[in-house]
Each structure stands twice: as structure tokens, then as C-alpha cells.
């Protein structure tokens, strides 16, 4: 019998966090189960920062369906298996605080913890599950790269934001006869770039899965010019790289030890400059950035998040712990966290989103790739 459950949101935020939280709370309330938010991701388990979530009059979970962000916060550096501790003398140590977290979970009486997050978050969840904690994961990320599911919540909103940006770049690009480059997020997967390129009518989409030849891209633009189309729209995934070349990196971030601290970014500018030189057309880059993560979720993401939230609670009621709610063949399903983490062994105890993670990348037989090619979107190869 479940009496008390906790929800944590972890990793970079997405539109749809709150919709999942609301769905879990509502389903839980239908079964007289008390729901708590664990504040700021896994951090909340150490700080014992728990907040009652309810949809009763005055409750925290009212009116949150359209809200961006997360009412219970989120964290990008709360790897409790390798946690950064700053001592009083300023020295830094990395400690395994997982047992302390488990003690707090037991003391507070959580019967299950829902972990809303991407591959790094679910790896932590798997490790807590191995240590006996009841966990159920929900796959989140704008990057759409969590293994074992066809779609993550937050992704559709990111694609929609990118599509709107492309619509706007179209009119200014056409007016000034320019090449308009849009750099989108996605880390080592090209889902956002590819899908938004199709939705936004782009001419070129460069994705990490297909290293590009800039001369082929320039030819595509030249051919358009010959047909009287003296502007072009190019979508570049932040993780795209040229054949035989490297990733373009903006800097590093401090997400802890053993995790991916690469701050991707800058490839859009590089591509724009090269295309200007090669084609003689003026080129401009726009980097879309965090717009893709903020604000209200699309209708699709509201529904997907609600489905995921209710499925997660159902799994908990059925006692199917150590699993991730997923979409398989278009339907709600579940898989073991073990399978989700897969052979993600190359990196530290808890981390994710590195090139070596068990990520779901774009495959060449994906309908999006075929569709893009069929309508003449140049993929840089
Ligand atoms: O994984 C989600 C994501 O938004 C990526 O698309 C992007 O590379 C990264 O997070 C940015 O991370 P941060 O919030 O650390 O800048």
C-alpha cells in the first residue's frame, strides 16, 4: 500500500515538468496517496527539503498545467553518488551521499520516488533502485535522446519554438537575400534540428549523426540561387561537426565530477561564416538557446506529460518499481531502468549526456531522415 510518494525534477528544465507533476499528484490523490515535491532535484533528498503538493483549495499543484519551469525546482549538479562538498576551509571533496539520502527517504516515509529527468537522472535512479529504493522514472529532455522511449516530454515544445523561429527567419532572410542559420540545442542528438527543419521548411539540416561537408551545403545553396531563390534557411544542431572535424565548444560548465561538463555552442556562427565565404551571399546566425526550454508547453507536451505522469503513478500502484514510463509503438509502456541505462558504463557513477551515454540518436532509417531527404533538405552529406 502506497501512502506517501515524492517527486523530483532533475537536470535542465523543460516545458512540461509541471504538467507531469500535476498528473502524478492528481492520480495519487484519487488513491488517497500523499504527494511531496523534493526540492531542487536530488539535492532535496540531502537537504530534506520536501513540500506537500496538492490540488485541494490553496494547494501548490493548482493551475500549473500551462506553467513553464518546475514548481519544485530542478538541478543540473546533484549527483549524490559523487557529490561536490565544499569544506569550511574552501577545499572541495566529492562524496557518495547516497546512503544519507536513503536514510532521509526512509525517515520521511516515502514509499516511492518519481524521478523526472534525462539519462543522467535515470542512471542515478537506477543506482538508488539497486540500493533498494522504490523509484519510477519519467523521461524528460528537450533533446529527445533518452533510450527505450520514442519521445520525451519537453521535446515537442522545443521543436515548436524552433519552428516559429524558422518562420520568422524566413521572412527576414527572403527580404535581405541572406543565408539564415539557426543553431538549436540537442547535445549529441539531432532530433530538434531535424524535426524543426522539416516543420519550418528549412533547406539544410546539419545533425551530429551525419558529419557534414560544408561544400555540399554550399552547393545546395548555389543551386537554389541558380533557380532564383537567393536566400536559404539552415538549421544546425549544436552537436553537429564536419567530416573528420571536432565539436564546437563554448566552454565548460560545473555540473560536478564524472559528468559531461562540455558547454556546446558556436557551430552556427562557424557554419554561417563559411557559407558566406563559399557562396558570396550574406549569412547571419541566430542561436536559439534557452528559449527552447522555457515557457508554456505545447498541447502535445501537455498531453504527453499528463500521460506520463498518470502512467508513472499506475506503475507505482502496480509495484513495478525500477522502471521508466515510456512510449513504445505509440503507446504507454514501461521498461526497466537497467535497460535504459544499458551499457552506459564508461562514465562515473551517475552522469549522462556524454557521447558515450546510452543515448537514442537519429538513425539513418528514421522516417524523419527519409522525409527530409525526399523533400530535398540537404543533410550535409
Ligand atoms: O540537455 C538539455 C540541454 O538544454 C541541451 O540541449 C544543452 O546542450 C544543455 O542542456 C545546456 O545545458 P546547461 O543548462 O547546463 O547550459
Our estimate of the beta-strand percent is 15-25%
Helix- and strand-based class? alpha/beta
Q: How many E strands?
A: 15
Kindly report the CATH topology of the largest domain.
Answer: Rossmann fold
Mean pLDDT rating: 94
C-alpha termini separation: 56 Å
Order of helices and strands: EHEHEEEHEHEHEHEHEEEHEHEEHH
Low-confidence stretches: 346-351
Each distinct ligand: 6-O-phosphono-beta-D-fructofuranose
Fraction of residues in helix: 25-40%
In DSSP terms, counting alpha (H) and pi (I) runs of 4 or more, how many helices?
11
Instruction: Provide the gyration radius in Å.
Output: 22 Å
- Identify the CATH architecture of the largest domain: 3-Layer(aba) Sandwich
Shape category = elongated
Please outline what is shown here.
The protein has 381 residues and is of the alpha/beta class. It contains eleven helices and 15 strands. The chain has helices at residues 17-30, 43-47, 98-108, 119-130, 155-176, 191-199, 214-226, 267-279, 299-317, 337-341, 367-374, and strands at residues 4-9, 34-38, 50-53, 83-86, 92-95, 112-117, 135-139, 179-184, 204-206, 232-237, 249-252, 262-264, 283-287, 323-328, 331-336.
Amino acid at each position: 500500500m502506497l501512502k506517501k510518494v515524492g517527486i523530483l525534477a532533475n537536470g535542465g528544465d523543460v516545458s512540461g515538468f509541471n504538467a507531469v507533476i500535476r498528473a502524478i499528484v492528481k492520480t495519487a490523490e484519487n488513491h488517497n496517496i500523499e504527494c511531496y515535491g523534493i526540492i531542487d532535484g536530488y539535492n532535496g533528498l540531502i537537504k530534506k527539503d520536501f513540500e506537500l503538493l496538492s490540488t485541494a483549495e490553496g494547494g501548490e499543484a493548482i493551475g500549473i498545467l500551462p506553467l513553464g519551469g518546475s514548481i519544485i525546482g530542478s538541478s543540473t549538479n546533484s549527483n549524490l553518488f559523487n557529490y561536490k562538498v565544499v569544506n569550511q576551509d574552501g577545499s572541495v571533496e566529492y562524496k557518495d551521499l547516497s546512503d544519507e539520502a536513503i536514510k532521509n527517504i526512509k525517515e520521511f516515509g516515502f514509499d516511492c520516488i518519481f524521478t523526472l529527468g534525462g539519462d543522467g537522472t535515470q542512471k542515478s535512479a537506477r543506482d538508488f533502485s539497486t540500493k533498494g529504493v522504490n523509484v519510477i522514472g519519467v523521461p524528460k529532455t528537450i533533446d529527445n535522446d533518452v533510450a527505450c522511449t520514442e519521445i520525451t516530454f519537453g521535446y515537442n515544445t522545443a521543436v515548436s519554438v524552433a519552428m516559429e523561429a524558422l518562420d520568422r527567419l524566413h521572412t527576414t532572410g527572403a527580404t535581405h537575400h541572406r543565408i539564415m542559420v539557426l543553431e538549436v540545442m540537442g547535445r549529441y542528438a539531432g532530433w530538434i534540428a531535424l524535426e524543426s527543419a522539416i516543420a519550418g521548411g528549412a533547406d539544410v539540416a546539419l545533425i551530429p549523426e551525419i558529419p557534414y561537408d560544408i561544400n555540399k551545403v554550399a552547393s545546395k545553396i548555389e543551386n537554389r540561387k541558380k533557380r532564383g531563390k537567393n536566400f536559404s534557411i539552415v538549421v544546425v544542431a549544436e552537436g553537429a561537426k564536419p567530416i573528420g572535424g571536432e565539436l564546437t565548444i563554448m566552454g565548460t560548465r560545473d555540473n560536478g565530477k564524472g559528468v559531461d561538463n562540455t558547454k556546446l555552442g558556436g557551430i552556427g556562427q562557424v557554419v554561417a561564416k563559411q557559407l558566406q565565404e563559399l557562396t558570396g551571399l550574406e549569412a547571419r546566425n541566430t542561436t536559439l538557446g534557452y528559449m527552447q526550454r522555457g515557457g508554456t508547453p505545447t498541447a502535445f507536451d501537455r498531453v504527453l506529460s499528463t500521460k506520463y505522469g498518470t502512467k508513472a503513478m499506475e506503475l507505482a500502484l502496480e509495484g513495478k518499481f525500477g522502471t521508466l514510463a515510456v512510449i513504445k509503438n505509440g503507446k504507454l509502456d514501461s521498461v526497466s531502468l537497467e535497460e535504459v541505462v544499458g551499457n552506459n558504463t564508461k562514465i562515473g557513477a551517475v552522469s549522462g549526456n556524454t557521447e558515450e551515454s546510452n543515448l537514442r540518436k537519429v538513425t539513418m532509417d528514421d522516417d524523419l531522415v527519409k522525409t527530409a531527404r525526399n523533400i530535398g533538405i540537404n543533410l550535409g552529406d
